[in-house]
């Protein structure tokens, strides 16, 4: 390994350590508790070193958010291994709720519920892979069922809105994810029936 490659690897490892520290603080204490100084203390660097990687706390949290969306995309992609298009779509929906349940603090940061304000354009870009995968899954279902969707993107956004709503309900202690999963199954069934219904 060349010296340049070694430095690049060390720099990447430092960056990942910074993001892990930010994630840990956010999960344990809430996202408003994340500061550059707290991150620096956690990774045992000075604040100026952290600023060499991220210009602000918000920039670091946007990177954590982007990693979260990539983890979600991979989880949904794994659910997409189901060959039947309708079961694949339903598995994708279940995987979305599982992710929110397994990573509640990260999910809140990703979806703007974490108590910190992040750039909307950065969130849109980070979510693009998840949006594209959801769109492709819905379009595959529509082809399989012989359904003509007038606006596939709108259908995808509707499905995502339903899932986000159910995940948000799941995060509430008085409802929880067991109930949210039942509600999501019912909502997805109703959504599919509405797409299959002939246009008036």
Automatic annotation (TrEMBL):
Location of the HTH tetR-type domain: 12-72
Chain residues forming the annotated DNA-binding region: 35-54
Gene3D superfamilies per record: Tetracycline Repressor, domain 2
Keyword Transcription regulation: yes
Keyword Amino-acid biosynthesis: no
GO molecular function: DNA-binding transcription factor activity; transcription cis-regulatory region binding
UniProt cross-references to PROSITE patterns, sorted A to Z: HTH_TETR_2
Protein keywords: DNA-binding, Transcription, Transcription regulation
Pfam families linked: TetR_C_33 (PF13305), TetR_N (PF00440)
InterPro entries xref list: Homeodomain-like_sf, HTH-type_TetR-like_transc_reg, HTH_TetR, MT1864/Rv1816-like_C, Tet_transcr_reg_TetR-rel_C_sf
Name assigned to this protein: AcrR family transcriptional regulator
């Amino acid at each position: 390994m060349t010296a340049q490659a070694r430095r690049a690897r060390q720099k990447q490892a430092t960056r990942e350590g910074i993001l892990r520290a930010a994630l840990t603080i956010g999960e344990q204490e809430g996202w408003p508790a994340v500061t550059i100084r707290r991150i620096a203390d956690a990774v045992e660097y000075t604040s100026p070193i952290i600023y060499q990687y991220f210009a602000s706390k918000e920039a670091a949290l946007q990177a954590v958010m982007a990693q979260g969306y990539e983890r979600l995309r991979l989880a949904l992609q794994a659910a997409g291994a189901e060959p039947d298009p309708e079961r694949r779509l339903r598995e994708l929906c279940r995987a979305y709720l599982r992710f929110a349940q397994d990573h509640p603090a990260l999910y809140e940061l990703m979806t703007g519920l974490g108590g910190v304000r992040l750039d909307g354009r950065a969130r849109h870009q980070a979510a693009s892979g998840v949006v594209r995968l959801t769109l492709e899954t819905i379009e595959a279902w529509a082809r399989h069922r012989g359904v003509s969707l007038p606006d596939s993107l709108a259908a995808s956004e509707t499905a995502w809105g339903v899932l986000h709503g159910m995940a948000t309900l799941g995060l509430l202690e008085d409802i929880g994810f067991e109930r949210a999963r039942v509600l999501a199954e019912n909502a997805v069934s109703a959504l599919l029936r509405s797409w299959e219904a002939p246009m008036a």
